[in-house]
Amino acid sequence: MALKFSALLRGALAVAALTAATVPPLAAADADTMTPDVVPVSDRQCAPGERAASLAADQQRVLARLGHLRVLNGMDDVVQLAALGGWGPDSHGWVQYHDVGVGLLNLPRSLDIIARGIDGVTAGTTARDSVVSGEPTGLFYRSLAPNPVYDDAYMPSFPYELVGWFYGAVYTPGITPIENGLCVYPTDWGFHERGVHAFPNFDMVMQPPPEPWMGADPGTIPPALPNPPGLVHPRAWDLHIWLVPGGDTPITGGLDTAQTIAGHDGGIPESFPYPQGPTAVGPDLPEHHGH
Questions:
Q1: Per-domain residue ranges for the chain?
Q2: pLDDT in tens, 205-262
Q3: Lowest-pLDDT range, 43-47, 183-187, 243-247?
Q4: Which are the contacts of 274, defined by CB distance < 8 A and separation ≥ 6?
Q5: Omega before 200 cis (within 30°)?
Q6: Quick one: three-class SS letters along the chain?
Q7: How many whole angstroms separate alpha carbon 177 and alpha carbon 138?
Q8: 6 phi/psi in degrees, rounded to 5
Q9: From CA 161, how far away is CA 91, in angstroms rounded?
Q10: For this UniProt entry, which residues form the secretion signal (predicted)?
Q11: Which carries the bigger pLDDT value, residue 34 or residue 209?
C-alpha cells in the first residue's frame, strides 16, 4: 500500500510540474487587469430560500451520482470512485481528521488549482474560477470500523461512510467562484490556507502570507522546493457542504457541525479560515465564520 501511495504522489507532482511548465509567464501589467475589484450585484443575488433549495438540489445530485459509493467497503469501491469522478487519496492519504474526515480529492482538478497558483508562472492568470453543482472537487468520509486508525496515511480503515463534500477553486481575493447550478452566499466560501503537507505524515504546516487582513493576498507559492519538505499548495477557495443526518438540506461550514467526526488533528481543522475582509456581495453569515 505504501508503495502504491508513493507512486500516486510522485505522479501527482509530475503532472503539476508539467502543467506549470507548459503555461507561459504572465506580464505584471496583464496580471493587474485580471483581478476586478468587485463582482456585479446581479451576479451574486441569492435569497435564503433559493440558497436552501440550491443546497438541497446539490445534495440530491451528489448522492445520486455516488449511488452505492456513499459507503466504501474496500479497495474495489475506491477504484470505482476513481473511475466515476477521479476521487481518491491525495496528499493526506487515508488520515481521518477530526471534524472533517478523510478527504478523497479529484486529483486532476486539485492539481489544476495548484498549477495555477505558482509565482512568476501561472499566478494571476485566473480572474475568477468556477464550480459545477454535482461535480465536487472532493468528498469527505469517516470510518465506521470498530477500531479505526486515524493517523495512518497509507492504511485505510474500511468501511467508510460519506459525511460531506467540497468545491474548490483558484483563490482570488474578494472574488468568489462562479457557481454553475449552485446558489450560495459569498460568505459561505472559506479557503484552504497556503502551506505544506510535511513528510512523512503529511501534517499541515500553514504558511499564510503577510497581508493587511486574513484573505487579502492570493497566497500563491514560489517555484521552489517546499520548506519543510512535503507537498505544497497555494491558497484555494473551499466550500464545504455537510450532510445533516435525517435531513434533505445540508449545511455549510469549514468544519462539520452536523455530526461528530473523530480523528487526527494534524493542523488540518484550523487550516480552513474565512476571509476577514469584503467578499463580493451578499448577506453575512456570522454563524459560519465568526465575523
A1: 2-11+48-281
A2: 999 999 988 899 999 999 999 999 999 999 999 999 999 999 999 999 999 999 999 9
A3: 43-47
A4: 187, 189, 190, 191, 214, 215, 254, 288, 289, 290, 291
A5: yes
A6: CHHHHHHHHHHHHHHHHHHHHCCCCCCHHHHHHCCCCCCCHHHCCCCHHHHHHHHHHHHHHHHHHHHHHHEECCHHHHHHHHHHHCEEECCCCCCCECCCEEEEEEHHHHHHHHHCCECCCCCCCCCCCEEECCCCCEEEEEECCCCCCCCCCCCCCCCEEEEEEEEEEECCCCCCCEEECCCCCHHHCEEECCEEEECCCCEEEECCCCCCCCCCCCCCECCCCCCCCEEEECCEEEEEEECCCCCCCCEECCCCCCCCCCCECCCCHHHCCCCCCCCCCCCCCHHHHCC
A7: 16
A8: -60, -40
A9: 20
A10: 1-28
A11: 209
Grid coordinates of 38: 468587485
* Residue 44: predicted pLDDT: 53
Q: How many residues are given for the chain?
A: 291
Report whether pLDDT(191) > 50: yes
Q: Cell 517555484, residue?
A: 223
**How far from 154 is each of 99, 102, 116, CA to CA, in Å?**
20, 12, 28
User: CA 234 from chain center: how many Å?
Assistant: 11
Instruction: Please report, for residues 68, 176, 259, 267, the alpha-carbon distance to residue 142 in angstroms, rounded to integers and kept in the order given.
Output: 15, 28, 11, 18
Rounded Cα–Cα distance for residues 23 and 6 (Å): 26
What gap in Å lies between CA 111 and CA 118, rounded to an integer? 12
The amino acid sitting at 10 is R
Question: What is the rounded CA–CA span in Å between residue 55 and residue 48?
Answer: 11
* DSSP β-bridge partners for residue 239: 167
